[in-house]
Design brief:
The protein has helices spanning 32-40, 56-59, 79-93, 110-123, 162-165, 201-209, 231-251; strands at residues 2-9, 26-27, 30-31, 48-52, 69-72, 96-102, 127-133, 142-145, 151-155, 169-179, 215-218, 255-256, 263-264, 269-270, 275-276, 281-283, 287-288, 293-294, 299-301, 304-305, 310-311, 316-318, 321-322, 327-328, 333-334. It is α/β, with parallel strands linked by helices. The chain has 2 domains: 2-224, Spore Coat Polysaccharide Biosynthesis Protein SpsA, Chain A; 252-334, Hexapeptide repeat proteins (UDP N-Acetylglucosamine Acyltransferase, domain 1, 3 Solenoid), CATH 2.160.10.10. The strands form 6 sheets. It has a 7-stranded mixed beta sheet, sandwiched between helices. The protein has a 5-stranded parallel beta sheet with strand order 12-15-18-21-24, covered by helices on one side. β2 and β3 (30-31) form a beta hairpin.
């Protein structure tokens, strides 16, 4: 069966308190949305739909490099309404399995999603969602389970009773379903809730009432599934990515003397033996060959530095190519084409 991915990126992100759409906030050299799309493309090369709405004219231009199709949701009336907007394109695709993810969760672990997708395909579930256990579940929809443990529904916090709010298992906003099977349930959605929206989570309850309960996949690392809803959460997510990137390069033989102060964007390439001092920033598609040393507080953006070169303190290099065995700086400034 064919596969498709839907990314929900139509929201305004009011809690960010910024004129910039939430998914366009910077995220280590890319935007939140670009980082997520790049990750999703590692597990899926087929149809990729991105639901846009708030400032769609600014979000849609980011999509062509990922061969993604914008789907306009206007007005924005909830997650269920967003999926309704995708119906015509899904009908053109034909029968398929769909992975639906929130556009504000750039750290979603693609490999784990791929594993969940294989299980979903093999088991024939009508729908599956990813759940996480949180010590403080405030703000998230709670998972409702029956006596036998089957998922019976999801209740959004604003609609939950006091007892339901004590539940720590929450909805991560990641779903697997089959089209067109699940799409027929969208006609049963209503807006009789506190927010007056069409909740996609109500589809889970409809399946439970029909005797075909949704499956639940437990996230291995809950913080990777959390959406970004505030400037503080954005900073925390960037910090987590910085840490993961640095750990990954150290495991490959790169020496990073002070990982907490070094900035290495995801597009950077490093060879074993590279030595990075405190405060170094490596941006864009910078490439450092073996035994390159970059001393404190130097910034390299989209540079290619040859083997054994020393970049001394406080250099700013942009679009620069350098052969092997050079010494650059200190306090050197180069620009594109150097």
């Amino acid at each position: 069966m064919r596969r498709a991915i839907i990314v929900l990126a139509a929201g305004q992100g009011t809690r960010m308190k910024s004129p910039r759409p939430k998914v366009l906030h910077p995220f280590m050299g890319r935007t939140i949305l670009e980082h997520l799309l790049q990750s999703l493309r590692t597990i899926h090369d087929g149809p990729l739909l991105v639901v846009v709405g708030h400032q769609a004219d600014r979000v849609a231009p980011l999509l062509p490099p990922f061969d993604a199709l914008p789907i306009l949701q206007e007005p924005q009336q909830g997650t269920g309404h967003a999926l309704m907007a995708c119906r015509p394109v899904l009908a053109e695709i034909g029968p398929c399995e769909v992975l639906l993810v929130p556009g504000d969760a750039p750290l979603l672990p693609a490999a784990e999603l791929g594993t969940f997708w294989k299980t979903f395909s093999a088991q024939g579930y009508p729908l599956a969602l990813v759940t996480v256990e949180l010590a403080n579940p405030a703000g998230y929809g709670r998972i409702l389970r029956g006596a036998g443990g089957a998922v019976e529904g999801v209740v959004e916090e604003r609609d939950a009773t006091q007892a339901q709010r004590s539940i720590r298992e929450v909805n991560a906003g990641v779903y697997f379903f089959r089209s067109p099977d699940t799409l027929g349930l969208l006609d049963r959605l209503r807006t009789n809730n506190v927010q007056g929206e069409y909740y996609l989570t109500d589809v889970v309850a409809e399946l439970g009432r029909s005797g075909r309960p949704a499956a639940a996949f437990a996230a291995s690392a809950p913080d990777l599934y959390m959406g970004i809803n505030s400037q503080e959460e954005l900073a925390l997510a960037i910090g987590r990515l910085r840490q993961n990137v640095a750990k990954g390069w150290m495991a490959e033989g790169v020496t990073i003397l002070d990982p907490s102060s070094v900035w290495i964007e995801p597009g950077v390439q490093l060879e074993p033996g590279v030595l990075l001092h405190s405060g170094v920033h490596l941006c864009g598609d910078t490439r450092l060959e073996r035994n390159v040393e970059v001393r404190p507080y130097s910034v390299l953006r989209s540079c290619s530095i040859g083997e054994g070169t020393l970049v001394r303190e406080h250099c700013v290099l942009e679009g620069t190519r350098c052969g092997p065995g050079c010494i650059i700086g200190p306090f050197c400034r180069t620009r594109e084409g150097t």
